[in-house]
Fold this sequence. Notes:
By secondary structure, the chain is of the alpha/beta class. It has twelve helices and nine strands. Strands 1, 2, 3, 4, 5, 6, 7, 8 and 9 form a nine-stranded mixed sheet that branches. The model has no long low-confidence stretch (mean pLDDT 95).
Amino acid sequence: xxxxxxxxxxxxxxxxxxxxxxxxxxxxxxxxxxxxxxxxxxxxxxxxxxxxxxxxxxxxxxxxxxxxxxxxxxxxxxxxxxxxxxxxxxxxxxxxxxxxxxxxxxxxxxxxxxxxxxxxxxxxxxxxxxxxxxxxxxxxxxxxxxxxxxxxxxxxxxxxxxxxxxxxxxxxxxxxxxxxxxxxxxxxxxxxxxxxxxxxxxxxxxxxxxxxxxxxxxxxxxxxxxxxxxxxxxxxxxxxxxxxxxxxxxxxxxxxxxxxxxxxxxxxxxxxxxxxxxxxxxxxxxxxx
Length: 289
């Protein structure tokens, strides 16, 4: 069966989370998929776990070269290695809801003008506790209302898009820790984005990784200035810079004051009882050893 969608998953040292992630893909209602896993120099048991899965299911394709090249390089490699015309993103510590591929693929087929579609996510901690949901606005106009000031709020692990778009707009290795944010910003003048309200992915978030957060914000500042000049919207880009620096300061103070849980909770919407119940069922199903 030829795959209708290729799931690109770069990984590094995810031995403790990769099994639930892959179980959630194997359980998809849409069966015509391939999983393209690109290892970025893992030093734990990740590769062994992946090889065991690949032996069980020939839709799982593993690429290992023992080197550490960085996330952007591995994302671009995964795109090039993909065989389907549609590409979905996922990380090695996420969990897909069973109807994710079917729902997003159906949307792209019904909306040929859309290049990339995201979705809502359930944010959870590593013990399975649901923190809350995140649902970005739905249409291109809402998502890109003021990208230099507000960014484009499409959660990277929820993306599904057309392979030609990923080839036209490859990830920039200079955008460290913000490669997804940068490629959306770079591509938006000639692209169409959308986001579904459906919660289709579980996104793992235990804490604020301060070093990563600060590094990401600093690189965002550089690209905001660059694209502000490109789009002749320097004032908006400067406002965006101020907002990014404020977020970096907030994260730093939250970690130093040991109040990061409060910051993380405020990023999310309160899930409904049915959403929590649904998540608990999935967590139990996909984390069984």
